[in-house]
Amino acid sequence: MLTLYYGAGACSMASHITLEESGAPYEPKPVALANGEQKSEAYIKINPRAKVPALNFYDDTATTENTAILSYVARAYPEKKLFPGNPAGDARCISHMAWLSNIVHPSFTHINRPERFADDTSTHPALKETGRKNYWANLQEIDGLLAGKEWAQGDQFTACDPYTLVFYGWGKRIELPVQELKSFTAFKQRMLQRPAVQRVAVEEKIALASELPPGTAAM
Question: Which uninterrupted H or E stretch holds 54?
Answer without folding.
Answer: strand 54-56
